[in-house]
Amino acid sequence: MTPASRPAPDGPLPTAPEPANGPRDFRLRMAVIDRETEAALDMTRDRYGRTVHAGAAAAARAHRDKAAVEAYAAHLAPHAEALLDAARLVLDELPPTRHLAGWRAVLDGLAVSAAEIRRALDRPAAPGSPAARAQHAALWPHLAAWADHGSIASNLADQQGGQHHKAPLADEEQQMWTKKAQAAQRRGELELTESWYAADGQPITLAYLVEDDDSTVVALRGDPDAPGWQVVGHYAHEYEAGKVLPAPVPPGVLRADVSRFNRPAPVPEVSLQDLIRDVVEGHSAGDASNALLSAVQRGYDVGPMVRLQELLETSGQFASALETVQGRQIAARMAALSRQIEFLTREVEEAAEDLGGTVAVLPPHRTPVLRTRPRPAVDTTPPTPPPRANTTARHR
Length: 396
What we know:
Residues 1-25, 158-182, 360-396 are annotated as: Disordered. The protein is built from eleven helices and four strands. It is extended. Residues 1-17 and 391-396 have low confidence and may be disordered. Strands 1-2-3-4 form a four-stranded antiparallel sheet, with helices on both faces. A hairpin with a 5-residue loop joins strand 1 (190-197) and strand 2 (203-211). Helix 2 (54-75) crosses helix 5. Helix content is 52%, strand content 8%. It is of the alpha+beta class. The protein has helices at residues 22-42, 54-75, 80-93, 100-122, 130-158, 171-187, 238-244, 272-281, 285-295, 304-321, 325-356, and strands at residues 190-197, 203-211, 214-221, 230-235.
């Protein structure tokens, strides 16, 4: 049902005046809390990331949970329900697109989290008690959900009342500007600057179209590297374009189950810097072999070279998920690079095993150099420094 054909409700429409800023303020506060907590947790781990001070780590997480509850109470608790109502109303008015079902599921999940947090705020445990710590810990996943995805609700609520955009270009004008932009792209004079998705699921890209040493800001709809894209507007500057073009909606995520504020505990791993130091400080071929084998190790204690391959594979997945021509091309390059790293990893592993099979130590003539010189005896006179040669100043 379109906004024009939607019947008017009997009661007043839900509004989101100030509340739409709540998720943004809450996320900013949660980012600060997250950084402070990570700094505190780093102090409880050894250099490989293993927790060695469990009590201090538990105290840091308890402080995090309490601060997050207080941040939610300050920024979101008074109007979370009104914000969700306004977001749902706008969602019902949007044309059918691929992402609406996912957004609706996000709003439903945020509503469940808001209800859980509201019940705890209405019946708080005694401050500082073990029950309060347990209550705050149980709320952390719900607080993280609002920090991660509350921007979807606020973005939808911001669109309440409808977006009023400048009418699209006339057919003839649109064709003319599209041909000019295509010609500039072939010349290498169409500079893409920014891209986002509109609420209807279509990508919008801003670009500078350069002609005869003069540039114009144009807006493109569609993938600029695929056939069929069109110019939907031209503007004197980006600020003017931002006032009349469809507002950006929150971008998607590579993996739906990943949370910025609820990350798993880091897996202990050895850095390349540590492995290089092990080789430098080693004496036998086995020492260098063990360092190389650590770099290509798989399983729980993953080595840096295997991590690099994982990074390439994940980056390739990201590039492919962009669903653009360039994204697919870059994904293919990443896949090729990942295969090269896999081959190189096997080569390093074989070389490391061969080095380990070498029964040898460094020859004794490679003697160390003392970093500190012996101090003279207390009753000895320090040597007289050599006289300084007199130098005559040269005049030009």
